[in-house]
Amino acid sequence: MAGLRGLIAGLVSPAHSAQDVLVTSGGQAALALVFRALGRPGEALAVEHTTYPGALAAARAAGLVPVPADAAGVRPDDLADVLGRSGARLVYLQPRHANPTGAVLAPNRRPAVLAALRDHRAFCVEDDWAAPLDLTAVSPPPLAATDPDGHVVHVLSLSKSVSPGLRIAAVSARGPVAARLARIRITDDLFVAPVLQQTAVELLSTPGWRRHLASLRRVLLARRAALLGAIARSLPTGDPPQPPSGGVHVWLPLPAGADDRLVTAAARRAGVAVGPGSAYTVGEAIAPHLRLTYSRTSSEGLVAAVDRLATVLRDG
């Protein structure tokens, strides 16, 4: 549907057009499409050391190569080094509000990241899953918006900002890679149901969309504050978590020596669902963490959950 593709292109950058956009059935389908189109089984795929496991599942046939990252995102020198040593021609990044760490790729690193891609003739899959979920600061535009060479393939999903049931996402690409994606896309399921696409058009093109996002951000801010406040009061952790500037996750450090999987199992027995940090890690875990999500529970429920988690940690 050209109208939807045009609206999504406008969310990526002024340089993108409807012809650059492919609509898919959700973000996971979009990632699977791009990995299949741009990679081959067994080829190296560079990913941040701590990253989204759904992407790792979609790229399960690849040889995953971790790249160091910190609170300011992937480190460009390390990315260039990994690309040079591994021969990887595909990189998966989340420059805005990375899942699970919440990191935002710093503006001063972005030109160097694009230069590393260009120098090593590599493509970047930019997973922009949290694009409209800035909470305390305005994040930089997508990498794809400042990529003149077509090395960045942008993936945008509406599920997190609207509803998990609205399985609408889009892949934006330019140049020969766009044609390759289109050829593979047509063999998958031909097209996304028109009624879903029309629903997305109506959402994105009405004044109610901005009001919805403003309301969503207020709710997420309140829940984030409740979660961080409860952690500060109750949890016997080591370093405090870095407050995320957007997205829906808090990356919680555990006390040194803790086993994140045992803590996760004990927390679930206590009625608290958390994610073990090791499930998000490629290679050896640096330190134990938990991923806490604040988008699905009320502020009161989050405080109660932290109290239960504190009991689990105190009991060892």
Can you give a write-up of this model?
By secondary structure, this protein is α/β, with parallel strands linked by helices. It has 2 domains: 2-205, Aspartate Aminotransferase, domain 2, CATH 3.40.640; 209-314, Alpha-Beta Complex (Aspartate Aminotransferase, domain 1). The protein contains 10 helices and 12 strands. Strands 1-9-8-7-6-2-3 form a 7-stranded mixed sheet, sandwiched between helices. The protein has a 3-stranded antiparallel sheet with strand order 10-12-11. Strands 4-5 form a two-stranded antiparallel sheet. α5 links the parallel β6 and β7 (123-127). α4 packs parallel to α5. The protein starts with a helix and ends with a helix.
Major β-sheet, in short?
7 strands, mixed
Strand content: 15-25%
Count of discrete alpha- or pi-helical segments spanning 4 or more residues: 10
Q: Tell me, what is the CATH class of the largest domain?
A: Alpha Beta
CATH architecture of the largest domain: 3-Layer(aba) Sandwich
State the end-to-end CA separation: 55 Å
Q: Please estimate the helix content.
A: 40-55%
Number of domains: 2
* Element-level helix/strand string: HEHEHEEEHEHEEEHHHEHEEH
Query: Care to count the β-strands?
Result: 12
CATH superfamily of the largest domain: Type I PLP-dependent aspartate aminotransferase-like (Major domain)
**Overall 3D shape:** globular
Parts with pLDDT < 50 across at least 5 consecutive residues = none
Mean of pLDDT:
90
Q: Structural class of the helices, strands and pairings?
A: alpha/beta
Give the C-alpha Rg.
20 Å
CATH topology of the largest domain: Aspartate Aminotransferase, domain 2
Spatial order of strands in the largest sheet? 1-9-8-7-6-2-3
